[in-house]
Amino acid sequence: MWCGGIRLGCCRRPVTTAVATREREREREETMGGGQSKKAEEQSLRLLQCSIDGDLREVKHIIETYLEHQMKGNESGNDNDNDGHISDNGSGGDRVSHVKAFVNTSDPQGNTALHGAVFSGHMDVVRYLIEECHSDIDQQNGLGCSPTWLAAGYDRCEVLQYLLKRHPDPKSALLSTVAANKTGDTPLVAAASKGNVAACQLLKQMASELDVPWGQMVLRRNKGNDNALNVAIAGGHNQDELLDPFLAELSGADLDEPNTKGLSPFLIASERDDVKLAKKLLSKGASWNVQDSNGSSPLSIAAFCGNPHIIKEVLLQKEELRDRQNRNGCTALWLAVRAGRPEVVDALLEGGCDPSISNKDGLSPLDAAKKYKRDAIARLLEDHIASNPTE
User: Fold this and answer.
1) Domains: count for the chain
2) How far apart (Å, rounded) are the C-alpha atoms in residues 18 and 22?
3) Angstrom distance (rounded) from CA 278 to CA 256
4) CB contact burial 97-121 (16+ within 10 A = b; e otherwise)
5) What proportions of the chain, in percent to the nearest 5, are helix, strand and coil?
6) What is the mean pLDDT of residues 323-352?
7) Per-residue model confidence as pLDDT tens digits over 226-235
8) 48: domain range?
9) CB–CB of 102/134 below 8 Å?
10) How far is CA 250 from CA 230, 253, 276, 327, in A?
11) 386 lies in some domain
């Protein structure tokens, strides 16, 4: 199972064989030689799994065991006390460097123990790894996700607040690509994409405390040209408490700017048949006249997707949308026919859409119905045309 770059179960071992396994590893290293690197790698994977599991006692044990091995024969070998505290005084500096290197070692997917603890929300493990073991608070995994990003994306609010307060440059963590993954998603975009209301509210609160402009965070777009509002809507998260703080910072132009797929929030609402969201966006200044990369209007998109509610309650109110053609010359009615949406075809005809408009290939909606064997829709069109001979 993969979640945010964390591979669950990557290094789990049966508890009943843990001691025997450690003994075999020690014996193999002593008899074969050259096994130190492999053993350290295995210990690092065990550390990651125990961090995911939230087993602080075992986390401390793994680190202490590793440290004892590294410091064997050194006079400083007994500086490690029973509560897992790592000394950084005097010769303990070597100990700190060993521990720091160990806990920041990643698995093949780039995850460290801190990534694992943050992912699962184990605050005690997170605190120990950072405060006692000097885990790198900004280290990114193979997907480019920092611990801060994971905390926001998985709604680990206590951990998120702690990480931002411990961060040497929290403003950077909130705003810049330091805390963005490889797609350019900031922690706010990560939280919004999952519908994590609490995490978004916390990020807004932290922005206020750190004197970071909230509007700047909301406007920040990723490499797909999506901002927090876009990804929230695309994820089907339309709660007022999530969207309203974003909408308060966005003007009509911001709302209408398409992403790299040519979609704006209003087009997504049309695609999802979300009447409430569409009305909210229009009230905030979104334009009726947006179109996707193929030149399809909100009405055309809703028609093709088979969304009668938004068509009847919102989109047919705008007369100029009714017969607008996309780059292929297809109207909303034509696309509804092609997709086999009889309920939508009926709604569009009742709403005044013209059944005589052909696409660039010269096919009318009725021609399309016959070509694509939409027999019920063909009869519907024929009946409508017969009843309205002037069209």
Assistant:
1) 2
2) 6
3) 12
4) ebbbebbbbbbeeebbbbbbbbbbb
5) 60, 0, 40
6) 98
7) 999 999 999 9
8) 1-16+40-75+98-135
9) no
10) 11, 8, 18, 29
11) yes
Q: How confident is the model at residue 181 (pLDDT cuts 50, 70, 90)?
A: confident
Asked if residue 62 belongs to a domain, the reply is yes
SS3 165: helix
> 10 Å Cβ neighbour count for 390?
3
Q: Which whole number is the average pLDDT over 209-236? A: 96
Residue 25 in domain: no
Range of weakest confidence among 27-36, 297-306, 361-370:
27-36
CATH number at residue 107: 1.25.40.20
In a domain, 251, yes or no: no
With beta carbons less than 8 A apart as the criterion, state whether 134 and 103 touch: yes
Whole-number average pLDDT of the chain: 88
Q: In angstroms, rounded to a whole number, what is the distance separating the alpha carbons of residues 11 and 19? A: 15
Average pLDDT, stretch 46-65? Answer: 98
pTM above threshold 0.90: no
- Do 316 and 282 touch, CB atoms closer than 8 A? no
Q: How many whole angstroms separate alpha carbon 275 and alpha carbon 55?
A: 47
CA distance 377 to 151: 50
In the chain, the amino acid numbered 28 is: R
Enumerate the β-bridge partners of residue 2. 7
